[in-house]
């Protein structure tokens, strides 16, 4: 019976690809493919990415079951259940901590810090690079409420780039005003004022907020929201 490593090498050679070409397609380093083919790395966390790169059925690649091809691998994105980051291949995933946001008892302003001690969320590295996530500047928070529907739903996980605190026209930010945290779209108005809007079309329930230029320093920008993930 063939092994996982044999099937990886067999399929790569059938396609006439080098290890480097497969690595580039799968979004991993070339030595990772070499370790798979040698049998020294038996982890199958990368099986979906490998199956896409090798244009084959993930079940065949991992277990030798079913047809080698004929499965639409691009739609297969299994949820990875993990207790420790060491269980996931860092060539495949990036790990993003969460934002700990709370109201300061003294000033009444919002204070926040990145929680590096708690369990982090894992995102596919290829996806993170495609949407522009820099793991050194990224943290997650959870959307609360329906003001940013339909794009952002209540309970969605948001990736916030806390290095981006300068306002760009029309982008979505996590921000705080008078000790309350919001996720809103910010528009720059003539004269230096800001218009803070919700995407929800119900403007009676979610009216725009106008911040005059002389008060914009009271708007705390936590970071720009650059990615959203949630249920369907």
Descriptive report:
- The protein is α+β, with helices and mostly antiparallel strands and 232 residues long.
- It has 6 helices and 11 strands.
- The chain has helices spanning 4-15, 19-26, 30-38, 47-54, 58-63, 125-131; strands at residues 93-96, 98-103, 110-115, 121-124, 138-142, 157-161, 172-177, 180-188, 194-197, 209-211, 219-229.
- The strands form 3 sheets. Strands 5-6-11-7-8-9-10 form a 7-stranded antiparallel beta sheet, with no helix packed on it.
- Strand 8 and strand 9 (194-197) form a beta hairpin.
- It is elongated, with a radius of gyration of 22 Å.
- Residues 71-82 have low confidence and may be disordered.
Cα-based radius of gyration, to the nearest Å: 22 Å
Count of beta strands: 11
Silhouette: elongated
The share of residues in helices is 10-25%
Uncertain ranges: 71-82
Strand order of the largest sheet: 5-6-11-7-8-9-10
Give the termini distance in whole angstroms.
40 Å
Largest sheet: 7 strands, antiparallel
As a percent range, the share of strand residues is: 25-35%
Q: What is the arithmetic mean of pLDDT? A: 82
How many DSSP H or I helices? 6
Helix-strand string: HHHHHEEEEHEEEEEEE
In brief:
With 232 residues, the protein is an alpha+beta fold. Helix content is 22%, strand content 27%. It contains six helices and eleven strands.
């Amino acid at each position: 019976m063939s092994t996982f490593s044999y099937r990886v090498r067999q399929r790569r050679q059938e396609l006439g690809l080098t290890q480097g070409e497969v690595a580039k397609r799968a979004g991993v380093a070339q030595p990772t493919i070499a370790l798979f083919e040698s049998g020294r790395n038996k982890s199958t966390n990368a099986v979906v990415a490998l199956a896409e790169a090798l244009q084959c059925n993930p079940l065949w690649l991992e277990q030798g079951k079913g047809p080698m091809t004929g499965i639409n691998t691009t739609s297969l994105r299994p949820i990875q259940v993990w207790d420790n980051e060491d269980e996931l291949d860092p060539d495949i995933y990036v790990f993003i901590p969460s934002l700990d946001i709370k109201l300061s008892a003294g000033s009444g302003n919002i204070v926040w810090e990145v929680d590096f001690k708690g369990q982090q969320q894992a995102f596919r590295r290829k996806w993170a690079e495609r949407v522009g996530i820099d793991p050194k500047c990224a943290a997650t928070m959870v959307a609360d409420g329906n003001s940013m529907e339909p794009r952002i739903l209540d309970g969605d996980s948001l990736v916030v780039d806390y290095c981006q605190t300068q306002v760009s026209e029309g982008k979505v930010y996590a921000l705080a005003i008078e000790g309350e945290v919001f996720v809103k779209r910010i528009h720059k108005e003539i004269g230096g004022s800001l218009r803070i809007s919700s995407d929800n079309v119900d403007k009676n329930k979610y009216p725009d907020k106008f911040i005059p230029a002389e008060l914009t320093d009271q708007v705390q920008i936590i970071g720009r929201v650059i990615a959203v993930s949630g249920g369907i």
